[in-house]
Amino acid sequence: MSDGTPDIGGLAEDLEDLKATVAGFATQLEHNTAKVTQLASAVASGGGQGGDGETSTDKEKSKTPPFILWLPGEKYAAELAALAVWVKDLLVPTYFGEVSSSAPWCPSWWAHPAAVARLHAAWLAWQELTNPEVCGLTGPSVWHRDHLDPMVSHLRASDGPFAGCMTNPDRPQHIVLPVPPVEPLVPPPVSAEPARR
Model pTM? Predict the structure, then answer.
């Protein structure tokens, strides 16, 4: 039409475009909801933080998250199992690209304590920073910048914990690098005079 009023055909086409967009959003929402439900059930079944019978009073007293490598047997196993779900279903498929000599990977990542500690720390941060009630709408951006990117760069560095592991998907390899020796502390001799500053 010449007066700037859209014609019926144009409106119908716009309506179909909007329907397709809404259907795409609905599909993505359904997918995201399924992932969140899966992760939430892993946490609720005792596999994540707070799944060990702690009361809200206990949680309020605990101001710092647990360091996974210091958790005792069953708690460590449960926390590692929940972390493994997050690593397998979200982290690796979404953020880890091709394996190469400059970006190694280890499918047995759980056998590398340094990797477990870093992945767990990133997962704890993810739990907090993807909750808009806790962190607002910028939490995911902060998580990517402050937690994900440095963690991935370190884990997949050519001198990181996976340095001896798979650098080519066609040749799987898993090697836990040796821990450097540490000498026991020898206390300094006790002096009769007080130390001067």
Answer: 0.60
